[in-house]
Amino acid sequence: MEAPSNITIKGILGLLTANTDGCKKVISLGMGDPTAYSCFRTTRTAQNAVVEALQSANFNGYSPTVGLPQTRKAIAEYLSKDLPYTLHSDDVYITAGCTQAIETTLSILTRPGANILLPRPGFPIYGLCAAFRHLEARYFDLLPHNQWEVDLKALQGLADHNTVAMVIINPGNPCGNVYTYRHLKEIAETAKRLGIVVIADEVYGHLAFGADPFVAMGVFGSVAPVITLGSLSKRWLVPGWRLGWLVTSDPHGKSPKFMERLKKYCDINGGPATFIQAAVPAIVGETQQAFFTKTNNLLKQTSEICYWKIKEMDCISCPSKPQGSMAFMVKLNVSLLKDISDDIDFCFKLAKEESVILLPGAAVGLKNWLRITFAVEPSSLDEALQRVNSFCQRHSCN
Description:
Strand order of the largest sheet: 2-9-8-7-6-3-4-5
CATH architecture of the largest domain: 3-Layer(aba) Sandwich
Structural class: alpha/beta
CATH topology of the largest domain: Aspartate Aminotransferase, domain 2
Largest sheet: 8 strands, mixed
Strand content: 15-25%
InterPro entries: Aminotransferase_I/II_large, NHTrfase_class1_PyrdxlP-BS, PyrdxlP-dep_Trfase, PyrdxlP-dep_Trfase_major, PyrdxlP-dep_Trfase_small, TyrNic_aminoTrfase
Helix content: 25-40%
Family: Belongs to the class-I pyridoxal-phosphate-dependent aminotransferase family.
Domain Aminotransferase class I/classII large: 24-388
Keywords: Aminotransferase, Pyridoxal phosphate, Transferase
CATH class of the largest domain: Alpha Beta
Protein name: Aminotransferase class I/classII large domain-containing protein
Number of domains: 2
Number of strands: 14
Shape: globular
Order of helices and strands: HEHHEHEHEEHEHEEEHHHEEHEEEH
């Protein structure tokens, strides 16, 4: 059997980095890992919680495959703050990061002939996981000039009796959008009409700094069944800790068959390190709001730098200002550039000439667009964008 050929973000970023010439310091605006910069550091509370759990010697053994009871309880309480109802420990399954939560969810939903609706642009791991599970991926468009909202009319045209779920990512990766309450309600009502599950990827939950606050998709759990995926990685700035979760809610009661499949899959899939799980109650319960406010203010500052620097570049445009997450999409007009054929060519030549790494839009499903990560120290971000501007001017047709 051959592995699915879907491109991965890490794969293409590795190729781009290898293409730099070493004459300048490499600045990556491609990978969504803010921990490379000292201004993005987790809290001492989180660090101490992990150290205490490890040094206690109480968490050196296996955890239950669905997660430690205290970890599940802490995540249920944390997420319930955003909901009109209370989640219970049994609704929560602890995973090795959100990637494992994605793989688990798609694996238990698939069946012969099934298909799933995925956003374009979107996070390519969904397509890759679907391909491995022989789950047909059907892509619906997000509308760039309408704050990247879902094209719900087109989405409904993609669905049929074999559609099992649709995926939404909010706050948006790679688009930097934050969906309104109204639009999320429309998504839930559409899912109800189609009789499908909403998989809500909320890895960037609460990383919202624009006009619209973050609203959890689970708010609409009384309208349609929702599976919420999340992790500590982005909000607590600890992607390497690999602590994620999968949370179920269903207005009609959870399917016994679904729950049985979920528990069995956890038995064979393994979870995150036990001592990291044990630290979660203190991490989510004791982190001060000031830490989150500081992170959001910094992300707002760096997103503004990106937005206004892009305004200075003739060949790149931004259809909507970033409102959340850590990255956003900008459109590349290759007709204004000489000897640049498309977004992939642009990114490889940029890496070679300026040692700046951007992610070509083709990697997330949108040709001749670029994804720019702004979770970067402001001075490094400013320097990187100056280099991008110089590159664009050097390759300009004018």
